[in-house]
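Pipeline run #58 for the internal structure catalog. This entry was flagged by the ingest filter as a single-chain record with no existing model, so it goes straight to prediction. Upstream metadata was stripped on purpose; only the residue string is passed forward. Reviewer on rotation: M.T. Logging verbosity set to normal.
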Amino acid sequence: MQHIGTTIKTLREEKGLTQQQVAELIHMHRSNYSKVEKGERDLSLDSVNKIAQYFGMTIDQLVNFDGNMPVEVTVEDKSLLEQVKLIAQLEEEEKSMVFKMIDTFLTKKKFKDFFQKNIAAL
């Protein structure tokens, strides 16, 4: 398994970022960050988490990087079944937020439809 610094360097280069940009993200001096990429210095868990989130990954995906950059998911382009499957993959808290948003939109639509129907009846 390669050192996490090597993984971060690969991801950074794929995104066209400088060492300075990643160092600023984790509030580290660039020269110290350079040592991270060389495997001469370790990162705090907080820094690893910030970098993982920045690249749209989990800490586990970053630590066990398989060479595949996560691709941006666009749910709108998917079939209804695929959309539901993607939502099902979310963390419980995120899933709950998605369902609350959907409930809110559906409730607004029902009220809007109700008022339009009843006002039209007047």
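catalog note: The radius of gyration is 22 Å.
catalog note: The chain has two domains: 4-63, 75-121.
status: ready for reviewer M.T.
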